[in-house]
Design brief:
With 215 residues, this protein is an alpha+beta fold. 18% of the residues lie in helices and 37% in strands. A hairpin with a 4-residue loop joins strand 2 (70-80) and strand 3 (85-94). The model has no long low-confidence stretch (mean pLDDT 88).
């Protein structure tokens, strides 16, 4: 099953793509292709950054799907500071060449949403989870499990976008936000969750199963 109400290019990027392409075109017309080449390369980079392809959603019961494309940089037992509980944290680091559209890891209802201004240290570092700008969602999964999904800004990420509010119901793989340019997403899961990934694994939003929730 697929769940994709958006075009292939994220709407958050339309303005940036238009500006980059228009700038390259103007320089091309005025000064020629040689002078415009760097601007065309920038336009191509911006276009690829905002790509947002459709994804197939696994039908595995109680699956926790990856909320982002990238690399697993943490799988560890920690204290969830949002729900104040012991939990297993799985972190996905996104570089500037990954798709930055964020998607719900589970079927469930958004219970709360918290935004925290903060620093912009390298998102690959453990301290980024608690020091960087971040936006957290508490999702009550349809099976009753509590899942915390946190968008974390990175070294050059300057804007976290989240389009859902408490009371909204999310389906697995449903797009809920975007982070501009380089970042990570942390998922805090119950201790009885069965983890399916390891540090260093490459994952894809929606299609990769991070874990399965307990019954």
């Amino acid at each position: 099953m697929s769940n994709y109400p958006h075009p292939l290019i994220a709407r958050e990027g339309w303005r940036y793509i238009a500006i980059a392409c228009l700038t390259a075109l103007v320089v091309n017309i005025i000064a020629g292709f040689a002078w415009a080449l760097i601007f065309w390369l920038i336009a191509v980079f911006v276009l690829q950054f905002f790509r947002d392809p459709p994804r197939e959603i696994p039908s595995v019961p109680n699956a926790v799907l990856s909320p982002a494309d990238g690399k697993i940089v943490a799988v560890e037992k920690v204290f969830d500071p949002y729900l104040e509980r012991d939990a297993v944290k799985v972190s996905v680091f996104m570089n500037v060449f990954n798709v930055h559209s964020n998607r719900s890891p589970v079927d469930g209802s958004v219970q709360s949403k918290w935004y925290f201004p903060g620093k912009f240290v390298n998102a690959d570092l453990p301290k980024a989870s608690l020091e960087n700008e971040r936006n957290a969602l508490w999702i009550k999964a349809d099976n009753g499990s509590d899942v915390t999904c946190v968008q974390v800004a990175g070294l050059i990420a300057k804007r976290i976008l989240c389009s859902v509010l408490p009371g909204d119901h999310l389906s697995r793989g449903q797009r809920f936000g975007f982070i501009r340019f380089g970042s990570r997403v942390d998922v805090y899961l119950p201790l009885d969750t069965k983890i399916k990934v390891n540090i260093g694994d490459k994952v894809r939003a929606t299609t990769t199963i991070l874990a399965t929730l307990g019954e």
